[in-house]
Amino acid sequence: MDYRQYRRARRLVRECCNYDNGQYMALDEGDGCVCVQSISHSLLCRWFRAAVLPLDHQLETALYHRPESRRCSECGALFLPGSNRAKYCRECAVRMKRKHAAERKRKQRRPCHALAYSC
User: Fold this and answer.
1) What is the pLDDT of residue 28?
2) How many Cβ atoms from other residues are within 10 Å of residue 11's Cβ?
3) Mapping DSSP to helix (H, G, I), strand (E, B) and coil, where does residue 55 land?
4) Under 8 Å CB-to-CB from 32, ≥6 apart: which residues?
């Protein structure tokens, strides 16, 4: 995990239900236990990997699916493609689908020059 990924993971740690002001509640037996995920440069906490990391799709893809991942043609974010033809991430795919459909319909509605009449 590089430094940028580490910083993003540290921000995500605060979303964990076991995290409370730097303490890890699941291991806390009254004397306080530091959350290992907040101080480590690797993914140690199983709960973090299963429940919290999927909240950030781009970070999860970068850490787990590096060989299969692709860059979005629109925004440049890493994403895990669903097929070999995918070229956009989830967010951009919806936007680009609407854009291409509008362009296709615009082209379809344009009058054909062979059928156009003159007044």
Assistant:
1) 56
2) 11
3) helix
4) 23
